[in-house]
Amino acid sequence: MLGQLLLATSRSRLVRRSVSGFPLTRKVVDRFVAGESAHEARAAIERLVDGGLTVTVDHLGEETHDAGAAAATAKAYVTLLNTLRPLELGERAEVSVKLSAVGQELSDDLALEHVRDICAAAAANGSAVTLDMEDHTTVDSTLGILRKLREEYPSTGVAIQAYLFRSEDDLRELSTEGSRVRLVKGAYNEPASVAHQGKAEVDKAYVRCLRILMAGKGYPMVATHDDRLISITELLADRFGRAIGDYEYQMLYGIRTDRQEALAGAGHTVRVYVPYGDDWYGYFMRRLAERPANVAFFLRALGGK
Question: Model's pTM, two decimal places?
């Protein structure tokens, strides 16, 4: 119930203004967001990579209806990638892009134009782009843009949300040679007509989707902090003959850092999702909705403790 309420308020302009204007909010946001500038993001990226982790970087922002804002977001990604180029990180530092932030709400063609520029900058770094998935109304558009991008940039990845009823069918089509797919549970307030609602049902759907990915010919990117799902991943990897390096784990910046380090220490590729930028509200609220521990952390900070 609390999680659904937080997801609903993630799109409320009134709550956004209230939360963003509260002085102590920044203390909590810093746990989940690696600063507001490319310079701050670079510092966090270097620290993580030096610790044996890899990263995917998200310039925060979504749902723009302004062509100028969409172009500015695309430019911010290119600037970030140019900032990272001297570090020669290659595949250790990729980026994640929400298509709604680069013009998807205006037209697929505009979003494709902008994300193609980002892919070109990533390719110059020896890196890649993964398309984030947003609410269910954007899935067909996102997969259509993905198909066009892969004609020129075949390593472009995509996130698939396990809680959507359609995702198992989507994954069967995506589990092809070289296809990079990030499997997430889903973090939007979706209706019961299109998505599983309860935690147990979502977890079961995640395992079904994970089995399809691990049995396929693509490269699974397993986005979870759940120890049980990590154990299931290992069992499925063994069943389908996948060695360490034939898949990777992805976890969020600031969450379960000890687990990230332990998995990396065991030889796994662990990619940390590193968000940065000043438009952090929607991302922040979804992180609170995902885990009660995050809400408790927020309330303690608001109380000055």
Answer: 0.86
Give yes or no for a contact between 146 and 115, defined as CB atoms under 8 angstroms apart: no
Q: Has 135 been annotated as catalytic? A: no
- Whether 203 is a known active-site residue: answer no
Active-site position among 92, 116, 180, 182: 182
What values do phi and psi take at 179, rounded to 5? -75, 125
Structure tokens at 88: 């020669």
Among 187, 133, 185, 138, which Cα is nearest to 7's? Answer: 187
Q: Could you report the per-residue pLDDT of 70-123, keeping only the tens digit for each?
A: 999 999 999 999 999 999 999 999 999 999 999 999 999 999 999 999 999 999
Catalytic pick among 58, 132, 170, 279: 132
Which residues in 63-87 are b (16+ Cβ under 10 Å) and which e?
Answer: ebeeeeebbebbebbbebbeebeee
